[in-house]
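Hi U.,

Before I forget, here's the chain from the pilot set. I'm dumping it here mostly so it's searchable later in email.
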Amino acid sequence: MNALKWIIGIVSVLALLLGGLWFLQGTGLVTIEPIACIGECEPLEGPSTTWTAFGLMLVLAALVGIWFVTRR
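Structure:
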């Protein structure tokens, strides 16, 4: 069971970082140019409610995962 908690912890931390990035991009506080595009890639212009919501949901799910791993 200890290995499962390690895996959940690592995935949760990565999800927290990714969700935070999505949230910041969705609010317009961070802008990053597309790196590897296949087809027509356009940068995110201005705030996006969709990316903000998905980022917040992923952050919340990651926090639940971290809580699960750290509880006794």
